[in-house]
Amino acid sequence: MVLPFKQNKNDLVRVYREALSSNQYLTIAxxxxxxxxxxxxxRAQSGLKLPDAIHAATALSYQCTAMLTNDAGFNRVSxxxxxxxxxxxxxx
Length: 92
Hints:
By secondary structure, the chain is mainly alpha-helical. It has helices spanning 2-6, 10-21, 33-46, 50-61, 85-91, and strands at 66-69, 81-84.
């Protein structure tokens, strides 16, 4: 939502927030000390920046086995299979 916030597109921010809160296939997970410690380990092993390491550590703590993103940097996390959106779009 960073770009919509920067562009002051509150209608798009609202759409994003609604999509995040109403999806039965999406869990919004709270960050806790266990995840932060895991994030430090992920960061040490992968070199990911802290926000990405927190994202990966959270996914791992919820036993996620795959990640759909456009950030190829997550391929440095060995326990998560990475699916790049651009690869999927290119298939169509």
